[in-house]
Amino acid sequence: GQSLEQPSEVTAVEGAIVQINCTYQTSGFYGLSWYQQHDGGAPTFLSYNALDGLEETGRFSSFLSRSDSYGYLLLQELQMKDSASYFCAVRSNDYKLSFGAGTTVTVRA
Amino acid sequence: GAVVSQHPSWVICKSGTSVKIECRSLDFQATTMFWYRQFPKQSLMLMATSNEGSKATYEQGVEKDKFLINHASLTLSTLTVTSAHPEDSSFYICSARLAGDPYNEQFFGPGTRLTVL
Questions:
Q1: N or C terminus: which one in chain B shows less Cβ crowding within 10 Å?
Q2: A3-19 residue pLDDT tens
């Protein structure tokens, strides 16, 4: 089975940097994804790491260390619209995603 | 591109009735679709994997006779909640993946909020 841990809440001010950590225990690992979900909305894809290292996409970056079963999502230059829930998800060999419990990010002015 | 729609967006039904939710990939063919449910302030829980032309694969603990899934074409999967009860009230979300996508991105529909009275 899959087990993922991430912080439940993070609060920061506009312009700040936030790092959301995700640790996982899996029976089969093919990659770590990150999704954003605004209240009542659909999850939207942010990033995917299959190999160790840092992937940068605009203000968002994601990191993976397979040997440590650990990854993080880095949100830079925080904006009010970044207030949302962020989920890490592990991909298994049949393309299924197992989601973490989610981290609620609140951005304050 | 890669848009997934769901219909209806919300539905209220009486206990004991059945409800069908449609999931469509609008601009791509999806050989695999996934069905999730999400309770308020909680994570997405995978219910089943739907493959075109074959039987769905259900996750442990999900009753396949209660949650009927049909994937009749490469652009349409349906979830029918049979004999719905108040505890089935939830947010049901489908997703689809593009075959060969190196990022393993799943494209999610907007979700269907089911309320069973």
A1: N
A2: 999 999 999 999 999 99
